[in-house]
Amino acid sequence: MKDTTCLIAGGGPAGMILGLLLARAGVEVTVLEKHADFLRDFRGDTVHPTTLELLDELGLHEEFAKLPQRRLNSVQIPIAGGMRTLATFEHIPGRYKYIAMVPQWDLLDLLAHAADAEPTFRLRMNTEATELLRENGRVAGVRYRTEDGAAGELRADLTVACDGRSSTLRAAAGLPVRSWQTPFDVWWMRVPRHDIDPAGAVPVLTADRFAIMLDRGDYWQCAILLAKGSDSAVRQQHPVTGILRDMAAAAPWLLDRVDAVRSWDEVKLLDVKLDRLDRWYTPGLLCIGDAAHAMSPVGGVGINLAIQDGVAAARILAPKLISGTVGTSDLARVQRRRAVPTRVIQGMQRIAHARAIAPAVAGKLNISNSANTPLALRVFRRLPVLRSLPPYLVARGLLAEHAPEFARRP
Description:
This protein has 410 residues and is an alpha+beta fold. The protein is built from eleven helices and 21 strands. Strands 1, 2, 8, 9, 10, 11, 19 and 20 form an eight-stranded mixed β-sheet that branches. The chain has a five-stranded antiparallel β-sheet with strand order 14-15-16-13-17. Helix 1 packs parallel to helix 4 (104-116) and helix 8 (302-323) runs antiparallel to helix 9. The two termini are 34 Å apart.
């Protein structure tokens, strides 16, 4: 490979949006993605209103509308045998009053296709960044390895690590990480959905199980919370069919499919992490997205925070990359811009972990009937203002980023 101006390691949401925006500014940019395609069950499939607005600004609305998707505009909860609306997105400001549930691989394909139209953009699949190149006390690019075992080097004026929460480049740079304990892990599985089922997002809480069911049309995408580190023991001691049987105790409309999941192979584990870098950069290298701050799945905000990081980085860095003057102070500007939203969201997630999730996975919280509904939750359900606040923070967040002028298209 020939040298490039900006090298992006990782073709996830942060990497692809950054690559697209920089290419539209005329920056020579190369994205390295270690897989052959994007077709994997990422499960980070929530596209929030701020990202939907960004796609409008980039001229991608019509193409995005063609993707298979469901709209999540409310959160319902089963109480006393019925469904109660816990929260709604109808009062949030802006054009989009819903979260679009779209397979992440479709979104990434859309961004890659748009970027391919730019002459300065290159995407190299089956190519993994494995080490950092260093020259004169700064990062000068990466060593890479392809699927067939070939190795090489690629130099760049700036390297951006977008290679996820287990970032190889972050580790290679030795950037200090601040981590917080999380009380839970997550099982992911699919359950058939019927047209007469509730719609939207449905929390299901029993004495033994806490799950979030996300409406994906013909199936439910189920996130089932369990105590941290308990996965192996539970798999050995309990049949997989017990999961849905427990959930049906609070959501009786699941009774006709309690045997839908027949093997533990159908249940995937997410090791939940919550961390962030104290400093997102070192000379010649910037970390964004999960490489800079691994988010809890609470709120489903990780993908959108990563995209917002990419937009801010493109706006701040594109002029400097074009002029060849990008320096450490510019990388620090990116972190300063994105640090507050990251800290606020992670702070909210830590509160949710301690106040709601830890008691739930310990079996100390049960709202399957109205008598057991905590007073705070009953008040929350009855006051429209309170019902609108968490949806606003989830849907809109803080410091929403907009496409820079050089990247906008009609």
